[in-house]
Write a structure and sequence with these properties.
The complex is a heterodimer.
Chain A: E1 5-16, E2 19-25, E3 38-41, E4 53-56, E5 59-61, E6 64-70, H1 74-79, E7 87-94, E8 107-113, H2 118-129, E9 133-140, H3 149-153, E10 157-162, E11 169-170, E12 186-190, H4 193-202, E13 207-210, E14 226-228, E15 238-240, E16 247-249
Parallel strand pairs in A: 8-9, 8-12, 9-10, 10-11, 12-13
Antiparallel strand pairs in A: 1-2, 1-7, 2-6, 3-4, 3-7, 5-6, 13-16, 14-15
Chain B: E1 5-7, E2 10-12, E3 16-18, E4 41-46, E5 59-62, E6 65-68, H1 77-88, E7 95-99, H2 104-115, E8 120-126, H3 137-141, H4 143-156, E9 161-164, H5 172-181, E10 186-189, E11 193-196, E12 211-215, H6 220-231, E13 238-241, H7 247-256, E14 260-263, H8 266-269, H9 273-287, H10 299-312
The chains are: A mainly beta, B alpha/beta.
The structure holds flavin-adenine dinucleotide, flavin mononucleotide and FE2/S2 (inorganic) cluster (FES).
Chain lengths: 255, 313
């Protein structure tokens, strides 16, 4: 039987503007083998915050899981108060991650934007370990928002873009696509919807995308997180991001 | 302590059940605990045809509460009967089916189909969903319409019918009396309160439906007040709900006049909330000096009546 469990905070530190890296440990780390899955994280004690917050797994090493979150509202702000030794109630890992097990000796493109960057790191590590060549393109708003540049550099070619040009290439992630060594066999992308849209429009090779929707339960029971199936004749007509996703083949869901 | 409760058509092991729409059709929560532990299972609203629901965002968080505008998404009554309900047959827990519609005819059709389905023990008429243009709320605010609907469904079904009342009305007692007179076997209350949250950056409503239904601990005092008022004037039992998060909240609902209690939003924060409450309930009741559920139900006003009759003599 599943149950939410307390995890211990090992570290919770700022790594970029409004961006924190949180390291947690607990028995459920051993189940966190699939990149792209998320943790449904309880905020605070008491009932002020009735909803958990979905945060992607950034990395897993030994008994430690890393999560990177950006402060965007009350819940993520409250998370910054957590100190080493505190506990956090975590439900998860939840959802279906990136399918990666069968890829070997391929050239794979990873495209991430903002808080869509974190899950790609664990994925990149897994792909490289399986003998794939990985090229990564990461988009941020501005130079102070950039994180994990060094970490990704160790895993293959890396391009960084910023909206304002204050770091890396100025412009959108898609602007650097022509500079990527060809051929590319497959891509994975995660980030804001407009970015995912642009990426999927640009690329004709097979791809997978990780989507964000506001969640209630995070386990498939409340229908808060649905998105429309791309196929108008689809039997259900929808997919639940929390249960069927968050990762989907790019042609499965309407953007 | 004996926690069992007898309601029209239902024998509950205990007074705790999940609220409609917060538990899907049970499958997901069965991965967290044995659903046999529950007093009953209330499934998500069924309509005649499949409904896609509203665009996202469909939920927002508020202080000690949340807004939802799911829009009654469901696969339609036929699929619910063929694909969802069979899963629940393995449990020794009565199933209450939540029924919604846009017209009296739709309610009747859905209700009669569900009534013929083995494993459905009672109907809950959702005349109070605030999130769809045509989905019950017009029945939930007009006592005459609500009575007509109740009467029609009662005629079409041999199952006990619980009518789920909307708090978005000026006279909840009149609504309750009206559906009781029309033959309702029980009441469920309360559904969500209409609310809104704005997006500070864009300046517009955050939910795509603009308004949403407020639920969670924030609405508990409203639910308690309404159950307190209604239970004094009707003779049918009430399933109480609205912001329940612990055994003490359950006690408060019983004292207000509810005979059983449903837990909604709290399932999202803690998927194990229902079995945890069931386990704590006997100890909580005895901590406050109660030895049975019956002595709690409606005590908030019965107690006052007793005292005043004592002081009169
Ligand atoms: C599968 C998934 C994985 C995610 N992974 C990450 C990650 O690794 N790092 C990260 O920084 N962020 C991630 N997000 C986004 C993150 O969940 C939101 O930024 C966060 O919930 C905001 O909470 P808040 O209380 O600070 O904001 P508020 O706006 O105060 O939150 C109010 C409500 O809206 C929800 N909400 C607000 N923005 C979003 C959003 N963009 N997506 C989903 N729900 C939202 C909140 O969960 C909460 O229920 C992910 C989202 C999803 C769906
Ligand atoms: C996400 C969500 C979906 C709901 N769907 C339904 C529904 O389909 N039918 C219904 O009668 N009530 C529905 N409700 C209302 C609940 O059953 C309950 O009456 C209300 O939320 C108050 O209880 P709570 O504060 O414990 O959540 C829904 C509530 C929520 C939060
Ligand atoms: S968040 Fe409840 S169904 Fe996905």
């Amino acid at each position: 039987m599943l149950k939410p469990q307390n995890m211990q905070v090992l570290q919770n530190q700022k790594i970029a503007q409004d961006t924190f890296e949180l390291k947690l440990t607990g028995p459920q780390v051993q189940d966190m083998t699939e990149p792209g899955q998320f943790l449904h994280v309880m905020i605070g004690e008491g009932w002020e915050h009735v909803l958990r917050r979905p945060l992607s797994i950034t990395d897993v090493e030994h008994h430690v899981v890393t999560v990177i979150y950006k402060i965007v509202g009350k819940g993520t702000r409250a998370l910054t108060e957590k100190k080493q030794g505190d506990s956090i109630d975590v439900l998860g890992p939840r959802g279906n991650g990136f399918p990666y097990q069968t890829n070997e000796d391929q050239h794979i493109l990873l495209v991430g934007g903002g808080v869509g960057v974190p899950p790609l790191f664990y994925l990149a590590k897994k792909l490289v370990a399986q003998g794939n060549k990985v090229t990564t393109v990461l988009g941020f708003q501005t130079s102070s928002a950039v994180f994990y540049e060094k970490e990704f550099q160790g895993l293959g070619d890396l391009f960084i873009t910023t909206d304002d040009g204050s770091y890396g290439h100025k412009g959108l992630v898609t602007d650097v696509f022509e500079r990527i060594e060809k051929p590319v066999d497959l891509y994975y992308t995660c980030g804001p919807k407009p970015m995912i849209k642009a990426v999927t429009n640009h690329l004709t090779i097979p791809g997978f995308m990780s989507l964000e929707e506001r969640m209630g339960c995070g386990i498939g029971a409340c229908f808060a997180c649905v998105c429309e199936a791309a196929d108008t004749k689809d039997e259900k007509g929808y997919r639940k991001v929390c249960q069927d996703g968050p990762v989907f083949p790019v042609e499965e869901v309407m953007l | 302590m004996d926690l069992s409760v007898k309601l029209p058509g239902l024998t509950l092991k205990n007074p705790i059940m999940p609220a409609s729409g917060c538990f899907g059709f049970g499958r997901e929560f069965s991965e967290f605990y044995d659903l046999d532990k529950l007093g009953a299972i209330v499934i998500k609203a069924a309509t005649k045809e499949r409904r896609y629901g509203n665009q996202t965002p469909r939920v927002a968080e508020t202080s000690s509460g949340m807004l939802n505008a799911i829009g009654l998404q469901n696969p339609g009554v036929d699929k619910i009967i063929s694909q969802e309900l069979p899963f629940l047959e393995r449990f020794d827990t009565p199933v209450i089916a939540n029924v919604a519609g846009s017209t009296v005819e739709e309610y009747i059709e859905v209700a009669s189909k569900l009534s013929e389905t083995p494993g459905v023990h009672a109907l809950e008429l959702n005349i109070s969903c605030p999130n769809v243009k045509e989905g019950g709320i017009q029945f939930g605010t007009d006592p005459e319409l609500a009575a007509t609907l109740t009467r029609s469904v009662k005629r079409a079904s041999n199952l006990p019918v619980y009518v789920k009342l909307s708090p978005n009305t000026s006279d909840i007692k009149r609504m309750a009396l009206s559906v009781e007179e029309a033959g309702a076997d029980g009441l469920s209350m309360i559904n969500t309160l209409v609310g809104m949250q704005l997006n500070l950056q864009k300046g517009d409503p955050l939910l795509s439906n603009k308004t949403g239904g407020l639920s969670g601990p924030a609405i508990k005092p409203v639910a308690i007040r309404m159950i307190y008022e209604v239970s004094q004037v009707v003779n049918i039992p009430i399933i109480g709900m609205g912001g329940v998060t612990c055994a003490e909240d359950v006690l408060e609902f019983l004292l207000a006049g509810a005979s059983a209690v449903a837990v909604g939003t709290a399932n999202f924060r803690n998927p194990l909330i229902c079995p945890e409450i069931i386990e704590e309930l006997p100890q909580t009741l005895s901590n406050y000096g109660y030895n049975s559920l019956e002595e709690c139900v409606g005590r908030s006003w019965k107690h006052v009546e007793e005292q005043s009759s004592v002081s009169r003599t």
